[in-house]
Design goal:
By secondary structure, the chain is mainly α. The protein has helices at about 5-30, 35-60, 75-105, 110-120, 125-155, 160-175, 180-200, 205-225, 230-235.
């Protein structure tokens, strides 16, 4: 495997998890995180993800990876559309009810998820709009990185499909290590579902929708059920 491919995997497996934990540590150390800080966080994350994708796409092109290998194809449009809609609706529903379940727990028993929610999740419509842009960006960029590029590299190395799914899911989970051990495990499990979808459909299209749906629900249902304050503007949306 070429040195730059190794470097990309190092970034995905080490640098991004470290960066996420460092940024969260800074946020948690702040006595208060206001609307402007959250909007800047969303905007900077969007920009960072697109820069990473641009660099990875460039190196993939240099090494001759095709659109098919990367999952950037949309053959059998009807099947992809149905899979995208049904999958996104199903995973969004499960995520919504899970957040509602967690919201019924006492705040002091929710662990780190409560502190993270209070600092990261949008607390007004003004914040929700850029958060939704971030959710869509994550669906596009992270699926290209983990289910597109990472799985393509592993497949070209001769790794069997289930191992490629597992390794990419571990990398995906590590990128969300800032959410704690629970977040690491749950994200890995979501990554396995997304990886299986990538293999079954032979395309990133459905899993991009599934991923974005999870993050969109987090931005809408998360404040409704996890934040202590009453957010009437967000409740009116749901």
């Amino acid at each position: 495997m070429a040195w730059d491919i190794w470097l990309i995997f190092f970034v995905l497996g080490v640098i991004l998890p470290w960066r996420g934990r460092a940024r969260l540590k800074t946020l948690l150390a702040m006595p208060r995180v206001g609307a402007m800080e959250r909007i800047v966080l969303y905007a900077s994350t969007i920009a960072f993800q697109w820069v990473i994708v641009a660099v990875v796409a460039w190196r993939a092109w240099v090494h001759g990876y095709t659109a098919g290998e990367l999952g950037l194809t949309a053959h059998d449009g009807t099947r992809l559309a149905i899979g995208s809609i049904v999958g996104a609706t199903t995973i969004a529903t499960f995520h919504w009810f899970n957040l509602r379940r967690v919201g019924r727990m006492p705040p002091n028993s929710r662990g780190s998820i409560q502190a993270i929610a209070e600092r990261i999740l949008p607390q007004s419509t003004m914040e929700l709009l850029p958060f939704l842009a971030l959710a869509i960006t994550a669906g596009l960029c992270e699926e290209f990185l983990y289910r597109g590029f990472a799985m393509a590299v592993l497949t070209r190395l001769g790794v069997v499909a289930w191992v490629a799914v597992l390794v990419s899911s571990i990398l995906f989970g590590l990128a969300h290590l800032y959410q704690g051990r629970g977040g690491l495990v749950s994200t890995m499990l979501v990554g396995i579902v997304l990886g299986i979808g990538r293999v079954v459909y032979g395309s990133l299209v459905p899993v991009i929708f599934w991923h974005a749906a999870v993050d969109i629900v987090a931005g809408i249902a998360g404040p409704r059920y996890l934040l202590k304050s009453s957010l009437n503007t967000l409740e009116s949306i749901s």
